[in-house]
């Protein structure tokens, strides 16, 4: 599978880590749902990914640094979520601050607010897990 568009489906729960097994995926769009929890670091396994659209959900926690693993990624949109803490400089440089707008608790390099020196980098949040059920049909 190369394209997975699940936008505007009213999905809830977390992004399942198993999505990283779709190793040939080029475009992933799960925007405009009610997805909660962190952005899984396992997305770094999707090394062919060109587009990652996660905007308009309720994603929380930090933005993982995917730039070193996802060298082909040209479009990233995580706007309008509940992301917080420091945006890795490499992500900010590659995608620009517009890719992260609408996440009022993010901080980093200018033009973002400076991060607090007392901000813990290892803060964790427990969020209930929820399984997604998606049935894909392929007809010839």
UniProtKB/TrEMBL annotation:
Source organism superkingdom: Eukaryota
InterPro entries the UniProt entry points to: Leu-rich_rpt (IPR001611), LRR_dom_sf (IPR032675), PRK1-6/SRF4-like (IPR046959)
Gene3D superfamilies reported in the protein's UniProt record: Ribonuclease Inhibitor
Protein name (record): Uncharacterized protein
Organism: Glycine max (Soybean)
Lineage, top ranks: Eukaryota, Viridiplantae, Streptophyta, Embryophyta, Tracheophyta
